[in-house]
Batch of 2 targets.
Target 1
Amino acid sequence: MFPKPRRHWPPSLGLLSHLRIRYAQETLPKCTCIFQAQLQLQSQSNPRPFRRRPALATSLPRFFSTTPLLLKKGQRDEPKRTVEKATARSEAADNDPYDFSALEAGIDRALERLNDELSKLKPGGRFNPDMLEALRVSLVKGSRVTVKLADVAQVMPRGGRTVVVLVGEADHVKPITSAILASPYSLNPVPAPQSPLELHIPVPPATQESRQQTVAAASKAGESANHAVRQARGAQQKLLRAMELARKVRPDDLKKAKDRMEKVVEKGNEEVKKRVEGARRALERG
């Protein structure tokens, strides 16, 4: 019997390493077979449908959008601050009993209207063509709609004793003639023989009666201005009453505000009286 030959191991591998490699070569195929068999039994006992995972889109649509410009903090808040300041100012004006801007504006409008009416009056009772332009004319018989004579005709003084009215349309000649005859100026228009659209109005000389009428017109203009001042005072008094009911201001402030309001109104009435008296003296001297 021959002796069993001894196996020589490579010098690079030790005996323990060689045994591990050989064990793995003999054991792994068996474990693989067992694992595959277990998977097959499990699939037969609880079958699941095969689901394919959705493929990822390689080219998705891209949507472009616009974004607001990046502003600084102060620039972004500027519109909001403007609105807040305006609201605060309006609330402060509503709650301020010493704010007489609306009252003063109403008095100023009354004085401007008074100056306009007084400027149309001529000294000595002489006729002013501007008063003729302000006449109201009803173009349609029976209608309440009226227009100014200056809108449908042109008034021109000719010499010192005649006024010429040039009418734009032939249908307006009769309504304009009727309006001039019905005016308080004692005028008598006469159609021109050469031109049917031209009216000649002889101006009557100034008399004592015409002077008195002119002075009375100045007094009437002053009464209208005083009425406008009273209306402005009534509007301001309503504002103060609303503050009093809402209890937005103290009673002492309301009392002081009413006293100041009366002083503003009194000053406006004095200005109206001063202008009317000056106009009356000028008209009487003429």
Target 2
Amino acid sequence: MPVGINQPSNQIRLTNVSLVRLKKGKKRFEIACYKNKVLEWRSGVETDLDNVLQIPSVFLSVGKGQTAPSQDLAKAFGPKTPVNDIILEILNKGELQVGEKERHAQLERVHNEVVDIVAGKLVDPESKRVYTTGMIEKALDQLSSQGTHKHEEGKGSGTATPTSGQENGEQKGKGKEMPTWTGVVTTKSAKSQALDAMKALIAWQPIPVTRARMRLRVTCPTSILKQAIKAAPKSKASEGDIDGAEEKIKGTVKDHILSSVEQVESQDVVGEEWEVTGFVEPGAFKGLGEFIGGETKGRGRVEVLDMAVIHEGD
């Protein structure tokens, strides 16, 4: 009768684990982590690697307890890459294998984060006040439930649910480009999904929304203010707005800066520099920065004082 059965030296049995899997060099590598700790590590809540890993080893199969041979690791990650660096790469870039309960909890966390971001970036266009997270959530749920229908309808006819006659005309020509929202996923960051959600809310307007304005300070040498604009700003004149483009070509640098600022808060001359502080739509920020850089040859600057100016309360 045999005394015992020897287990191969590269087999380690682990149970009750969360797996992180990464395919590299035609091989699939896994690490064994404690449940819920991977997300805490990736979000920065957990910083101690020992609290994340069940064992500091790389596996070919955690389920079978088969550790990865050193030659496989060297071939995939490089012969001089330490095991700890390999573990970190798998932990940070790998695909998290989770159970149904964990997946639901993760989805809920991402959903709440997306709603919080959107609620802080969008306002009512009339009152400039923020919506509650509950109202944003209901609007996104409405888009999500109708997303597939709208997407197919846009493909077939190029039309959608308009918010005005003018928007209806725009949607007929751009129906295929209308952004849609079908809900959050766990494979994309909350920040990028929040951006997608804002685009869909602004496009479809289930509730009246617009991006919260940015508060900027623009500084420009006084010697340049009265100079004529060297070239028409492409982002400010539409293709068919020839007259508007000509006006901007004939205008001065100061004229164009002030026309880009939706609401001027203050103007002042400090030494040889002119400063204007005011509010702009987020979409105008990039164009204004490029304009200032080009017209002043780097002598002017645009500073962001507040990314999203909102009004709270009733």
